[in-house]
Amino acid sequence: MSTKSELQRSIDGGAIPPFVYCYPVRSSYRPLNPERAVEAIWEEDLSHSPTRELNLYLHVPFCRYKCGFCNLYTVISEDADVYDAYTEALCADIRRHAPVIRDRRLRTVYIGGGTPSLLHRRNFDQIFDTLTEVYPNWRSTTEEVAVEATPDSIVDRPDTLRHLIARGLTRVNMGIQSLRPQEIREAGRGQANERTVRKAIEIVKTTELANLSTDLIMGFAGQDDQSWRESVDELVELAPETISTYFLTIRPDAWFSKTGRYRYMRNGALYERYDYAQEKLLSAGYVQESNVRYKKPGRGGYVQKVLQFHGVPVLGLGSGARTYTNTVDYIVGGSANPNLAEVGDYIRGANAGMLAPRAGFVYDDVERIRKRLALDLFDLNLRDLDRYGYREHAHLFEPVLLAAEELGLLTRLPGDRVQLTRTGFKYRDIISWMFYSPEVVRLDEEFYRELHNQNSRATRLLGNPSFISGLSSAAV
Predict the structure, then answer these.
(1) Which are the contacts of 344, defined by CB distance < 8 A and separation ≥ 6?
(2) Could you give the angle at the alpha carbon of 239 between the alpha carbons of 378 and 226, nearest 5°?
(3) Cα separation of 353 and 6, whole Å?
(4) How many other CB atoms are found less than 10 A from the CB of residue 222?
(5) pTM of the model
(6) Which residues face 62 on adjacent strands?
(7) Separation of CA 168 from chain center
(8) Residue 27 · residue 80 · CB < 8 Å
(9) Minimal CA–CA distance to 393: which of 367, 420, 414?
């Protein structure tokens, strides 16, 4: 089958592969052999990254509750003593990485999780003070300082939000997922009901926050076209600066999987909901930044993700945090089954300066090319990939680009630039998965197949699926 036929078949079949927000995926990480020192990874990366810039990601794994679809590294805890101990360890980790941070221009700081907005003011002050100690003018060089929050955490602690804005916060990522009661309950988010969401947005609007980022998810059980339209319409009326719309993805390590309530196959009819959201948001004056994200010009958006897609490394610190470089992607601490004991191990290791990459993925030039193509087709100059020998390896990638161009999904511009069309945005994840290497897909399938087989209820209800990853599992 030709590449064009394969791409057309995936589109005609309504394939909805998992959202591509990194390459390779976490499930492709394996123990590093030989082991790699953090200092050596970052030193080597200077010769592979397109710029001498840096994104900083700080992971806070604590949550009040576990969302049903979540497979992120999170643990349930509201223990202030644990928060204090973790913050102390995280700051020790920041200091340990001072040479890496100081050696580059710090562009963004993102405190994610988990629900970092559960931390107390003293915890945030300690983090920001440590950043100032390590990188004194961080507020001048950073374009974005962001934190993740749930609606209920904002409603419970509005003064903390105002305090963070005074300390330099520019963006809040507030998970909404839906504005319909049944769908919110289905997501396992009863404490963040639609009334709490509206209240949280009202609180944010009384502040000077530059960018409130929200999201909606297509595909919850019980959701239909009408309820989706109602959520989209109301969120547009509430007018946050950034709105993301995601297809529901449930992996075997998500909470839903404990009950066997997950499926690998997707309903291609959900693209009609994508079309509705895209038309509604563009008509309301938003511009499309990616296949999932829309922003108000001049205010909204997600700078760290855009820079990451452009090849700017992300230094991830914290229990279960991932680091993305152009040499080795790696994780320090954490596993597929997050728990407080592992968080305790991270606290002890960070304070003792004994943490090291536990697992990761080592790039060669072909994988570096695949990474940029999978992530950055929204606007990519192929000449940027010549540093990795693109012309030598073009036969691996040009058939996909040509097929996308012939199907009206991609436009070529002078100077070897390529850009996705509006329709290309819609099917971007299909195109992106076609750039995945066979090895990354194999490792991903191996990881999730093992998790699935360990889940007796899911195995009984679903059997043993032939495929889990990418396009193999996505077509209806």
Answers:
(1) none
(2) 85
(3) 50
(4) 11
(5) 0.93
(6) 75
(7) 22
(8) no
(9) 367
